Amino acid sequence: MKKMYLLFALLLVFCSMRVFAQTAGTLRGQVTEENGQAIGFSNIAVLDAATEKVVTGAIADQDGTFQIKTPDAGTYKLRVSGLGYTLMQTPAFDVTASSFSKDFGKLQLKPDVRTLKEVQVQTLRPTVTTTPDKMVVSVENTAMAEGNTAYDVLTQSPGVWVDQDGNIQLNGKGGVQVMLNGRRTYLSGKELQSLLQSMAAENIKDLEIITNPSSRFDAEGASGIININVKKGRQSGISGSVYGGYQFNSLSTYTSGAEISQKQGNWNSFGSINLNRRMRYRDMEMDRMFRADDGSRSKFDQTGYEKKERLEPSLRLGTDYDLNDRHSIGALANLSLNRNTSSFNTSSYLRNSEAMFIDAKNQSRETYGNGTFNLHYLGKIDTTGTTFSADLDYVHIESEEDASFHNRYLPLVSGATVSEELLRNENPTGYHIYSAKVDFAKQLSTKTKLELGAKASHVKSDNELRFFQVQDSQEVPDARRSSHFIYTEDIFAAYTNLSATLSDKWSLQAGLRAEQTKSNGNSLTTNVQTDRSYLDLFPTLFVQQKVSDNYQISYKYSRRISRPYYENLNPFIFYLDPYTFAQGNPLLKPQYINSFEMTQTLKQTYNLVVGYAVTKNFIGEVPEQNAADNTTIFQQRNIRDLKSATATLVAPVRFSSKWETSNNLTGIYQQFTTLTQGSVVVRDQLSVVANTNHTLLLPHNLRLEIGANYQGPMVYGLYQVKDQWWVDAGLKRSFLEDKLSLSLNVADIFRSRVLKVNTELNGNLNSIDQYQGQRGIRLNLRYSFNKGTSFEAKKRNMNLDELNRTGGN
User: Fewer CB under 10 Å: which end of the chain, C or N?
Assistant: First the structure.
């Protein structure tokens, strides 16, 4: 621990020092549309004014900003291009010395417009774009986003898959870190699913998929990061929108919301409110085969229907205040309160020497509240790019669930007696999460940039399960099924990251992150405590090679971690039905992943990404079937390891100015190895995941979007997942100079997105087929307004970790 305190002390002293370096010139600016909206990932080339030969260049950041090292003395001009926009060049300018600097301000690109038969048609921006370190999925202004949720959009993104428990997978691997505007959501499993399902997709700008994050990010997240960028106001004055929608998928869902932003003087404030009533259902079939030690077999067949109603009010507020041109402070608050009711009715047949039919009716009511608060500071120390930022975060999550289980047992033999039982449980849960972090960046020279940072977090989880048997209308506490568990965790982290341009052809980024973890799991029921303390180092190394202006290669290595979800460390036994249980595992260890990746980029448009990863102590679900009483207990355990190899091709195609497609093809090979009951079990599979999205501009200002997806057979832990495919379509029409939009969407048109999972272990079979009711039709109406002029919104560096692991309900 003394070593960590010394590391923090040295880091803070270093951050407080002014690092002096030789001043060098830069060419900088921001690429925007005519209305002031930033154009991310556009190309900026520095041309020799006489020959128009490309001398150097860069790709703009997400917010359209760029910074290029000043070339040798001479006369140059900038050429700026972006897919879907006309090419523009600046007037020639003279560079007198390498220390010369010039700020071009905002460079505006115009949409690429074609006039056909007196009808003006605007070309489209790509749905998916790639940069050397991430893949960006455009969401803003797409027909498929209208009336949808952030969860729906996320599950349709390249390489993203959701398992049977709602956990998000990326390229076939779990442990995804989900962020909102660069900040951790602090949620996972069903709670993360709940948050994303309560977010309107209309409020999302884009998704960033980062498979190999740098050391600036928390090491948490074995398979990478998915960052959801929520739209922000860009107008000086007042701007915003209101929307309402209806969806039918055999049940009726209503959505409504509004967002508003205002910039006045040094203040920039924004807010959004949503009120949704969502209805979802699930059809399920489960088949199990039990094999006893004497060779006899019994069978358990179950069908079920689950219906959920969710009332989801949410509020998001934020403000920034510019102290001066270099320093700003701000605050954010996200508040949500969900009231959920669900019914899950199952019919089960137990077929053995004493056959029985079980009719189970489960009811649950839950209130879930989430409050996330942030205070932040951003300072520009000098004009050469030195910055310092600080963030304080507090998160409070509280839920209260009340469930009842009514079971009727009907033996399938003549003269047998029918029996009934009524059970009930209460599950109050609370989380308190505190986090503080600082980040420092210094441009040591035109070719070298240094980043340093530190973070500390504290988490306390309090989870109680109170179980009762109801007899003659009297509730009798069931001590065998009741439990109380408190978990605390402290993480201290520090990182350094160095970026350098070695030559015109080569550049690198190297980083090292240290994280010290201390945790305590305390079962108040059994008086058993589990203490852990471990220090880990997480190196990253990225090398980029510029073979030519049209061909680049990047090589990436990173080591990451996925700590167990807090709920999975809880030793509770959760009752699902008379023969099915889920149990926590306080002995779970973190899983570690070493990831290697090579990305080839052709013409800054086509990408081939090849990767290989090895995960130690992989955390996966294991079903334990007991033939003696025909019960099954599902538990998360450390599977010995996972080896995976992936190859992803990203190939957007423009057929015409009115028809563009984004196409993604991923090949995945996975091999899971585990040791169970003294036997080594290997599961491996070669699979293919394909996605194609077509966007067409039709007459009368109509926009048509069609998306087709295919996921081949896969393995996940001990489970084998069968292939599935689905097709979605959306139609959007704009009115009143794009202020009013109407969209009609149909999801899973052929009702083909059925999840089929099975496993065979020690002669026992477990198979599950379920459909989550994805097929539906949505109608959405949105009106946007603004009054003011454009301004440049500030970009903040925010990143959090622990909430992602608060687990499901």
Answer: N
Q: How far apart are the first and last CA of the chain?
A: 34
Integer angstrom CA distances of residue 256 from 27, 245, 292: 45, 6, 55
How big is the chain by its Cα radius of gyration, in Å? 28
**Residue of 587, 590, 583, 594 whose CA lies nearest to 619:** 590
Sign of the alpha-carbon dihedral angle for 693, 694, 697, 699: negative
The amino acid occupying position 431 is Y
Distance CA 574, CA 221 (A): 26
Q: For residue 187, what pLDDT is reported?
A: 62
Per DSSP, the residues of 458-517 read EEEEEEEEEEEEEETTEEEE-TTT-EEEEEEEEEEEEEEEEEEE-SSSEEEEEEEEEEEE
C-alpha–C-alpha distance, residues 663 and 296, integer Å: 51
Pair of tokens at residue 708: 């087709």
DSSP per-residue letters across 282-347? EEEEEEEEEE-TTS-EEEEEEEEEEEEEEEEEEEEEEEEEESSSSEEEEEEEEEEEEEEEEEEEEE
Compute the distance between CA of residue 793 and CA of residue 784 in angstroms, rounded to an integer. 19
- Who contacts 534 (Cβ-Cβ below 8 Å, separation ≥6)? 516, 517
Pairing of strands 26-32, 102-108: parallel
Q: What is the pTM of this model?
A: 0.76
Q: Which helix (H) or strand (E) holds 25?
A: none
Q: What are the Cα distances from residue 156, in Å, to 145, 149, 167, 593, 597?
A: 11, 11, 14, 25, 23
Distance, in Å, from the CA atom of 645 to the CA atom of 103, rounded to the nearest integer, reads: 44
- Cα 292 vs. chain centroid, distance in angstroms? 43
Closest CA relative to residue 306, chosen from 253, 363, 255, 358: 363
CB 453 within 8 A of CB 436: no
Q: pLDDT digits over 163-195, tens only?
A: 555 567 776 566 677 877 777 765 666 567 666
What the block records as the tokens of 613 is 């990863």
Mean pLDDT of 718-740: 89
- At 188, list the tokens: 């996972």
CB 726 within 8 A of CB 709: yes
pLDDT above 80 (res 729): yes
User: What is the distance between the alpha carbons of residues 721 and 617, in angstroms, rounded to a whole number?
Assistant: 21
The one-character DSSP state at 563 is: P
Taking phi over 0 as left and psi of -120 to 50 as alpha, with beta for the rest, 175 belongs to: left
High-pLDDT (> 70) share of the chain, %: 84
Helix (H) / strand (E) containing 248: strand 235-248
* HEC assignment per residue over 181-227: CCEECCCCHHHHHHHHHCCEHHHEEEEEEECCCCCCCCCECCCEEEE
Query: 183-184 and 776-790: which strand pairing?
Result: unpaired
Torsion-angle region of 216 (φ positive above 0: left; ψ -120 to 50: alpha; else: beta) = alpha
DSSP 85: B
Number of helices (H), then strands (E), in the chain: 3, 48
Work out the burial of residue 770: count CB atoms within 10 Å of its CB; fewer than 13 is exposed, 13-18 middle, 19 or more buried. Answer: middle
User: What does the H/E/C string look like for 634-700?
Assistant: EEEEEEEEEEEEEEEEECCEEEECCEEEEEEEEEEEEEEEEEECCEEEEEEEEEEEEEEEEEEEECC
Ordered DSSP codes for 587-609: T---EEEEEEEEEEEETTTEEEE
DSSP three-state, residue 144: helix
Contact 321, 295 (CB under 8 A): no
Q: Tell me which DSSP letter residue 413 carries.
A: S
